[in-house]
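This week, look over our next protein:
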Amino acid sequence: MNRGRRQRGSALLMVLMTLALGTLLLRGLGLHHRLRQPILALEIQRIQMSSRAHSALAWGMRQTWVPTPTWQCREAPDQGRACLRTTANDEGVLMGLDSTETMRYWQWVTITAERIRAQPRGWSDFCPLADGECELP
């Protein structure tokens, strides 16, 4: 009889230890999750900003532009802005900005008859112009 009670007691002790370890593990995972939430929110915000800047760049590619040596910008609906600056030889740089103007992407373009066409391998995530020429008015 003692042996049966002892085995039941050991089984109950094992169940309680398993529950305690499971609780500790869940609390640790919960803490880890709470600490990672702000990082995840920031990453989601950056992805959205990048998407809006890409969308503004694509929107700007479909617009009709008049070549000028200074920056000209247009508001892209719900996305940000697209800006074009003409350089030499019917070339230019199109910039797409998100609505906060934090994220920017550039595309070298060829300008023909007020239409622009992306140059192969002309995309950049940094300003391809000389220092100071990328500042918007």
User: Anything to note?
Assistant: The chain has a mean pLDDT of 87.
